[in-house]
């Protein structure tokens, strides 16, 4: 991406989740490393995480209503929503712990430990994303409803995080 310093600094309140991800995972090819010195404001990050979770929850519910419980369509919805969920988890863990791991596997382990997200849910979603199908013993409908419950729980937790933010 090619962004100016002014753009980055004036976007910290608008895109804190995206800028946090860039700050944590960027490679500077040339020039000053502006991203490493960005200061993410916890309240802006918390607010965007809450907004994204509530939007995700609404989309998951709408997808269920629009498509019913057809396995193939639910699998596609799960695969579509998982990458954004990983970025949101990164933001929540950053708020709770002050840092996040670089590797996604470590992020998912912390999400399981810190946020109570079942490891099997994360593993099944990773498998779906990587292989285009769920493990043999996993029912798509059950996984979909479990994800809705987890996203709802996270949205509620992030909502009350307001006074706990570092």
Q: If you had to describe this structure to a student in words, what would you say it looks like?
A:
Helix 2 (16-25) packs across helix 4, helix 3 (42-67) packs antiparallel against helix 4 (71-97) and helix 4 (71-97) crosses helix 6 (119-131). Helices cover 69% and strands 0% of the residues. The chain has seven helices and no strands. The chain has helices at residues 5-10, 16-25, 42-67, 71-97, 104-115, 119-131, 140-160. With 166 residues, it is mostly helical. It has two domains: 5-37, no CATH class; 42-163, Four Helix Bundle (Hemerythrin (Met), subunit A), CATH 1.20.120. The mean pLDDT is 90.
Low-confidence stretches: none
CATH topology of the largest domain: Four Helix Bundle (Hemerythrin (Met), subunit A)
Sheet with most strands: none
State Rg.
17 Å
What is the total number of structural domains? 2
């Amino acid at each position: 991406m090619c962004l100016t310093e002014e753009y980055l600094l004036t976007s910290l309140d608008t895109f804190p989740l995206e800028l946090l991800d860039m700050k944590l995972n960027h490679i500077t090819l040339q020039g000053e490393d502006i991203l490493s010195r960005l200061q993410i404001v916890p309240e802006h990050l918390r607010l965007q995480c809450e907004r994204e979770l509530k939007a995700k929850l609404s989309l998951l519910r709408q997808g269920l209503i629009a498509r019913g419980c057809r396995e193939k369509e639910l699998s596609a919805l799960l695969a579509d929503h998982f990458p954004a969920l990983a970025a949101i988890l990164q933001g929540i863990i950053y708020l709770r712990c002050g840092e996040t791991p670089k590797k996604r596997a470590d992020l998912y382990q912390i999400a399981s430990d810190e946020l109570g997200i079942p490891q099997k849910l994360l593993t099944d979603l990773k498998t779906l994303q990587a292989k285009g199908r769920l493990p043999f013993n996993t029912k798509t409908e059950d996984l979909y409803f479990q994800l809705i419950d987890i996203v709802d729980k996270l949205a509620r937790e992030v909502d009350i995080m307001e006074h706990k933010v570092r």
